C-alpha cells in the first residue's frame, strides 16, 4: 500500500472532519490527541503538499510541531538507544521552527488557540534546554491535547 493510499484510508476512518474543517485538517488533531504524532504529521502533510494559499506556513508549522512530538515519543520509548536517545535536540529545533511558522497566525486561527500552542511548545523547549538536552518532558500519561474548535 502506498503512502497516499494509507493516508486516504486513515482519512476515511476519521470521517468527514470537524465543522467546516477539511478532513485532513481535522484528522491531524484526532491523531495528535491520540498520541499518533507520526500519523498526524502524515495526514496534514497530505493537505499541505496541495496548499498554495495563505495557510501554507500554518500547516507547515503544525507538521513541524507533530514532528517534534515524534522525536519526544521515540526518545521516551528508547532513551538508551543510539539513535532514539539523541532525539531531544531535533525535537527542540522542530518546536522552534513550528512556533516560528504558526505565530503570525495568532492569537487564534482555523479553530486553534495559537498562543496556547506556542506557549506549550515554549515550555517543552525550555525544559529540554534547561536539562542540557538530557531530560524529556513528554510522558504518555501527560501527553498534551490540542483543542480544535469547529468553524
Pattern of helices and strands: HHHHHEEH
In DSSP terms, counting alpha (H) and pi (I) runs of 4 or more, how many helices?
6
- The count of strands amounts to 2
Q: What structural class do the secondary elements suggest? A: mainly alpha
Q: What does the model show?
A:
With 151 residues, this protein is mainly alpha-helical. The protein has helices at 3-14, 23-33, 37-48, 56-77, 88-102, 114-130; strands at residues 108-109, 112-113. The protein has a single domain (3-13, 21-130), classed as Orthogonal Bundle (Hyaluronidase domain-like), CATH 1.10.3450. The protein has six helices and two strands, in the order αααααββα. It has a two-stranded antiparallel ribbon with strand order 1-2. A hairpin with a 2-residue loop joins strand 1 (108-109) and strand 2.
Secondary structure elements and their pairing?
Layout lengths: L2 H12 L8 H11 L3 H12 L7 H22 L10 H15 L5 E2 L2 E2 H17 L21
Helix pairs in contact: 1-3, 2-3, 3-4, 4-5, 5-6
Structural features:
single chain, 151 residues, mainly alpha, Hyaluronidase domain-like, two-stranded antiparallel ribbon, 6 helices, globular
Summarize the structure.
The protein has 151 residues and is an all-alpha fold.
Amino acid at each position: 500500500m502506498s503512502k497516499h493510499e494509507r493516508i486516504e484510508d486513515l482519512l476515511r476512518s476519521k470521517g468527514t472532519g470537524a465543522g467546516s474543517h477539511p478532513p485532513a485538517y481535522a484528522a491531524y488533531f484526532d491523531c495528535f490527541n491520540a498520541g499518533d504524532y507520526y500519523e498526524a504529521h502524515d495526514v496534514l502533510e497530505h493537505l499541505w503538499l496541495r496548499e498554495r494559499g495563505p495557510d501554507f506556513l500554518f500547516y507547515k508549522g503544525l507538521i513541524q510541531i507533530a514532528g517534534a512530538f515524534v522525536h519526544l515519543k521515540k526518545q521516551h520509548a528508547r532513551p538508551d538507544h543510539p539513535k532514539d536517545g539523541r532525539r531531544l535536540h531535533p525535537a527542540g529545533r522542530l518546536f522552534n521552527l513550528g512556533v516560528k511558522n504558526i505565530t503570525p497566525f495568532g492569537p487564534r486561527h482555523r479553530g486553534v488557540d495559537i498562543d496556547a500552542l506556542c506557549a506549550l511548545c515554549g515550555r517543552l523547549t525550555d525544559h529540554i534546554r534547561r536539562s542540557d538536552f538530557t531530560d524529556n518532558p513528554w510522558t504518555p500519561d501527560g501527553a498534551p491535547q490540542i483543542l480544535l474548535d469547529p468553524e
